[in-house]
Amino acid sequence: MSELKEFAGREGDEDRARAWLSKVKSAFMRDQAPDEEKCLVFGDLLTGSARKWYQQLSRTTRSAWKDLLRSFQLYLRKFDESMWNTSLKLSMTAIL
Asked: Domain of life of the organism in this record (predicted)?
């Protein structure tokens, strides 16, 4: 799993975030990592705003792979919503 890169969680990175998550999940499957290890490695790979998001999660969520994964997927939806809102604002500005 040493080939995995960090993820910072900058807005506008939704495609990169999904690709990163896919690589992480593939590495975990390939290495047959137990859920506890997945949670630890996942947290260690986060930096910047993604790390801040991770730190605000409950210990229960951070230590249960399925819950952590579900929470991260919800976190990624914010990227989509943010980009959609930005596009909408730009479109509205162009119309006016």
From this structure: Eukaryota
